Amino acid sequence: MSRRLFGAVALAGAILVSWVAVSQPVSHAVPAPAPLGPARLLSNALRPGIIPAPEGAPGPYLLQRGRVSALFRETGVALRLPSQTRPVRELEWRVAGARAVRPQAEKPREAPFFQRGVRAVSSYGGLRYPGIRPGVDLWFEERAEGVEYGFRAGRGADLRRVELEYEGARAVRVVDEGRALEVDLEEGVLREEGLWCAQEAPGGASREVECRFTDVRQVGRERWAYVIEVDVEDPERPVVVDPLIQWNTYLGASLADDFGGMAVTDAGMVLVAGTVEIDSSLLACNCIDGLAIDGKGVIVAGFHEGGGFAGWRILNGSGVDVGRSITLGKDGMVYVAGETTSKSFGTFPSNKGAGLEDGFVAQLDVSNPAAWRFRWIYLVGSPSGNEAIHAISTGADGGLFVVGETTSLDFPGAPDASTAGGKDAFVTRLHPATAPDGSVATILEWSTMGRGTHDDVLYAVTVDEGGRVYVTGRSASPGMLAGPLRTHAGPAGTDDVLLARLNPATGGVDRSLYLGGLGNDEGRALALKGAGDANLFVAGTTRSAGFPLQTGSAAVSDAFVVTLDRESFALKAVRAVGGPTADDEGLALAVDRSPAAAGRDIVYLGGKTAAPGDFPLEQPFDRSYGDSGSTEGFVARLEVDAGAPLSWSSLVGGGGEDVVLALNSDRPGRLFLGGTTSSDDLVPSGTPGYSKTPKGGTDLFLMSVEQDASTPGPVTDAGVDAGVDAGTDAGVDAGTDAGVDAGVDAGVDAGVDAGTDAGVGAGTDAGVDAPMSPLGWSCGSSGSSGGPGALVLGTLASLALLARRRKREALHG
Predict the structure, then answer these.
(1) How is residue 686 annotated by DSSP?
(2) What are the pLDDT digits (tens) for 243-253?
(3) Residue 36: beta bridge partners?
(4) Which letter, b or e, does each residue of 732-768 get, where b requires 16 or more Cβ atoms within 10 Å of its Cβ?
(5) 541 vs 407, 482, 516, 588, 656, CA distance in Å?
(6) Residues of the chain with pLDDT under 70
């Protein structure tokens, strides 16, 4: 399959320009302060909106944040920035040779903006400059991170070359053979990079085309012109730059590697767990705990919120070790769960394995960015059977809850004997502990079994703020649950969704039900919206017609999301997603907690589809299927209401087999996707991230997308939003071979308070995120040489011009 276009195929005649850069300060007169949390950068409180400029101002619209302002003029934008070397730093960016156009305000805000000493004024989310050049529009749009911008043209030929200018720079120069641009200010050097262009072909497919920075020349005092040049292959077809994916990466070795789970820390670091095939390329990495021998090991890797690599570690024993799930402990540690056939981990602390295959929980310490290490592994199992742990979650009191399946007759912590039902479901509570000598001192406190006459498995577990434990999976045993609120629907041997709530202290089941029709159904993911919200969300796969009604079985499976009252387990809403001709599976779930979703049950659903072109796509960032017979991952934003349309939905894949296995929306404005791929074209080569090269076989992948982002629909006028990924908060790790950022993490979010004069994150070798600067760049300084450049440009975090294309909202109301 050709290289697919993420998020641009529906936009007629658009050329979008993508920039990301990093500042290298030239002075060390003033040390950089400690960084603030990136949550401030993404806070909706920093979004006053674009407002009419005061009377007499040299531009019609203004965006003011703290001491930083952006005045929108008739050909571009003028920035006024605090400076340590002059009263104010003025930097102007404009379209060269532009026609003077009064910008048109778009996306009016529901609430007015209140200026100090002035009555309420209207505020807007965006501006459009129609016809700023012949056949070309320019637009700006305020985002949580700052201001985004983009170009569009009715024909690709109209943007073969777009000339832009800076005024207020000491020098501008092209570097890296046209792949980057450096802008030299008195306070530091800005670096623009990340251009990626594609030409849309008939039928919606796309192919990458070359584009570059070129032709820099000085045209006046502190005034520089430069050109973005695109090799348009068909002048009548759209040419675009990948606008939507903020960053993504491959992770793995050269053989078969699989994704397990994902967790995101309060500081914004994304942790992924999975399984890696250990070969000669990894044996010398000095990153393995346990035995440094060939085999399958458990891998945990971390990425900064903007995509910079944070660190990694592998745990490997004498057999096959598989990482399935990951959670953050109350003790500051990271816990990974899965299954293992290893009977020895060398001198690494562990208890003894019991069966041929045991479940496990391992503790990982990531407190030292330069030296991650696993501390111990605790095996859960019995000599009489095999175990697998599918999910782990942390309780309110720090206890760990694991769920999975077992074939053992004497599973630890459960006194009752197993029936002859094959696989049995289990929930186990562990108290994690480390002995003074470093050995494992974890205690298994209780286990609760789901033992029926047929196979029963649990796949997901979550815990509410009161500590109550919710689990879901599948059961083919009609009489397995005692007193369920809803009985098993199909005949014995057909699967229903199994859902239960347990007492965290005793493991006793206080609520349970089956959900299903006459086909096979299973629950794969759970989500809670937060403290005080009454809903419990369950996602999975159904092959029942009219799920969860008992009206018959279906020819193909669909993904589904169900909303229940978490107290009574009363069914509130059901939503199925899928195509009519092939199987679709729901495997991942996350709740939209953004202000836009307040009062509505909006979720993100992920999984895989085998539908040959009929999966329901709504404003997708990827609409191209892979090779014939392959599966594609998918992600959809939807309201759990059968009558509501999909907000947006997209494929996630390349030319091979792809599946989305985890979603996380804990960070404001971001959605993280993780899964497994055999595609060598899943990750766009121009997007930021740690690794762009597939490792072979199957790989883990991770990507970050804008939560409210999607592709505009068909264009009927000149005012359709288009755009550019001009400053994705991403960054290729500039660190050591241990994977630690050594210096500036190029493009990673930083926490700059827009209302202060400083607040730049120092890019130390601990991998501290760097702040955003004026036009979507990332700037920062090393911990030893922080200077005025970092301090000045750091205040622009909330004014970063991040040109990423988003879903077009209604322009009026």
Answers:
(1) T
(2) 334 455 656 55
(3) 751
(4) bbbbeebbbbbbbbbbbbbbbbbeeebbbbbbbbebb
(5) 24, 24, 10, 11, 22
(6) 1-48, 65-67, 82, 84, 109-120, 143-149, 153-154, 187-207, 237-255, 353, 416-421, 550-553, 612, 627-629, 642, 683-696, 706-813
